[in-house]
Amino acid sequence: MKILLVDDEVELVSAMAERLGYRGLDADWAENGEDALKMAGETDYAVAVLDMKMPRMGGLELQEKLVARHPGMRFIFLSGHGSEADFKAGRAAGCNYLIKPIQLEDLVDMIREVAGEDAQ
Amino acid sequence: MKLFEKIKPQFWETDPGTGPAKSLFDYRRIWRKAVVVLALVALVPLCVLASIDYSVTRHSLEFENLLRTSRTTSNARRTVAYFLEERTKALQFLAEHQGIANLMNPANFAHVLQSLKSSFGGFVDIGIIDSRGRQVAYNGPHDLLGLDYSRQEWFENTMTQGTYISKVFLGFRDEPHLVVARKVYDAKTDEVFILRATLDTGQFNDMLTSLDLPGGGDAFLVDRDGIIQTPSKSHGDLLHEVNLLNIPEYSEKTSVRQTKDMDGTEYTVGYAYVRGTPFIVMVVKETAELMKPLQAIRMELLWMLTLCIAAILVVIVWVATYMVDKIYIADQTRARTLHRMEHTNRMASIGRLAAGVAHEINNPLAIINEKAGLISDLFTYRKEYVHDERLMANIRSIIDSVARCGRITKRLLSFARHIDVEMASIVFKDLADEVMDFLRKEAEYRSISITLDIPDDLPEFVSDRGKLQQIFLNLINNAFQAMNDGGDLYIAARAITEDRMVFTVEDDGCGIPEGDIKRIFDPFFSTKKKVGGTGLGLSITYGLVQELGGNMAVESEVGKGTIFTITLPTKGFEKADKK
After folding, report:
1. Which residues of B441-469 are buried (b: 16+ CB within 10 A; e: fewer)?
2. Residue A100 belongs to what domain range?
3. Pick from B358, B360, B371: which is nearest to A11 by CB?
């Protein structure tokens, strides 16, 4: 199972991908929406973890585009804001939602949950 | 003073222009102005009318007094004139009826005098004087026969005018007398004679003293030089000058005027000249005595006026107090609403600020978190430093601290998020824990022990999370301020019915004096103003509880502590929430 991490904070997203790797989850990362779309075209990702706020293309917009091209893909949103609007939008999109800073174990559990795998 | 404390209107103690409750008005000034203006408008016309009424009454009484005095004087003049005329006519009758020759008979003349004394009274002597002025017949106590009057003034007067009446004089026995003389024509001798009689003034005096003069009035005769002719009660001795000023000029008519005596006492004096005599009738009444009825009227008027003024003032004060109290209440409501709005706005700003700060911190925090996690993972999974306890402990410490920071920013976000949120399902225990997180540190520093008695099976309920948090926070803050270090705070929650729950916040602090209890929910009522209290906390809390459709009650005992009890509906409060 391959995971795609998208966040404009390169330091964050690279460390996160490496840590997921240690936990047996194969994660690639991208630092913006355009790169993410390109990578999704090349590789089949089961779950995408998207930051809500990114320059040019936000998490929700990216999700819409990814869903259109890869209907089977599942999504998890990350946000440092936790504002009412974000919260509602995330809920409305039927996605899971974590507020930074996250506990990596929470993310792992959530990835396994949305991917329909047992969180062992 | 105690009575004033009881009836004192609400607005009396407000201090305009100071503090956050700055009023639009200076209530006491408005009240004073209203009372003064209303009193002027009502009382000035009343007083003017009363004084006009008084002056009209006084004038009419004065006029009536003048009229009455004038009448009395005229009557007295008529009586005096009649008396004297009667006696002169009697002399003429004698001459015409008996003839001078008959009268000259001494025996007959003595008989005539006797008859005059018994029928008219007052006759002392009688004489006949011929046209040359010689007394040709006389009957009386003195020996006056043959006396020559030809050079005397009265003789000439009688000869020219026909009748003569003398002024009063003291006779030989020091008795006051007067003389009447009448020129008569004797047909038998074809000669002119004068019949002359001396009268004592006793009858005269009786006649004047018998006049009914109320209140120390005095009636007497004076001559044209102001010499008193009949006894006066208080205006001078007989045959001495009268002590009143201003005897008027001769006039046929009676006149009445106000005058003063030597002592300055004011008198109402009626004058009437008696025609053909030297006499003036004087009726003298003390003006003050005459005006006595006015005093009674004045007292009555004054009483009525005082009563009316008192009644009007009471009504004016009541109306002014009532109106200003209403303005005060309206103004207070305005201030309260304004402050609640300000508070809400401030809370919203704080919420936005907190959310902004939390967001800014969250991103770097997430990086620290991931980097530290990565280091930890590297050590753990590569097993190079996994046994270096010190390194691993440091990493864990970093990760724990980041987690703590994360909890703080999440709490800030949560508060911010709920500022304008409506109904949500609430687990009261979680909400209490969330709020307590903010206060736990202060409680620890001050060694305040907090007991949370919230049963796990307390059902979830629907309410406004943000408002509930604020209510809870305010109450606990309030309790902290009342408590000494090392106190006990007890918080309990229970479901009392299916759709109502109650929670209590009980402290063992200083308590609230009985007099203050009913005011603690008033805006700006604070016992801590000097140390920066705004007096808004409990008032806002009360408002929030009402917005949530609940009730708030307080029990307190000074020195023992205070219990706030809040009852809330658990199924939402649609009406109360609509603003």
Report:
1. eebeeeebebeeebeeebeebebbbbbbb
2. 2-114
3. B371
Domain B81-195, second-level architecture: 2-Layer Sandwich (3.30)
Q: How many CB pairs under 8 A join A and B?
A: 78
pLDDT digits (tens, 9 = 90+) for B437-458: 778 878 888 888 888 888 888 8
CATH number of B205-291: 3.30.450.20
pTM over cut 0.80: no
Task: Please check the confidence at residue B576 and state whether its pLDDT lies above 90.
Answer: no
The residues, ordered by sequence, that sit 6+ positions from B478 with a Cβ below 8 Å of its Cβ are B537, B538, B541, B564
Q: What is the pLDDT of residue A93?
A: 61
In a domain, A120, yes or no: no
Split into its structural domains, chain A has a count of 1
Choose the closest CB to A100 out of B355, B362, B377: B362
Q: Under CATH, what is the fold of the domain B421-579? A: Heat Shock Protein 90 (3.30.565)
Minimal Cα–Cα distance from B404 to chain A, Å?
10
How close A26 comes to chain B (CA, Å)? 15
* Max Cα-Cα span within chain A: 38
Q: Which of A19, A101, A104 has the CB atom closest to B406's CB atom?
A: A101
Q: Mean pLDDT across chain B, nearest whole number?
A: 84
Extents of the domains making up chain B: 81-195, 205-291, 421-579
Q: Are B220 and B231 in contact (CB under 8 A)?
A: yes
CA pair distance A30, B264, nearest whole angstrom: 125
Q: Do A19 and B370 touch (CB under 8 A)?
A: yes
Chain B CB contacts of A101 under 8 Å are 362, 365-366, 368-370, 402-403, 405-406
Interaxial angle between packed helices B292-382 and B389-417, expressed in degrees from 0 to 180 and rounded to the nearest 10: 140
Work out the average pLDDT over B202-214.
Answer: 80
Pairwise CB contact (< 8 Å): B374 & A15: yes
Of the spans B480-484, B536-540, B544-548, B570-574, which averages the highest pLDDT? B480-484
Residue B422 has pLDDT above 70, yes or no: no
Name the band, by pLDDT with cuts 50, 70 and 90, for residue B22: low
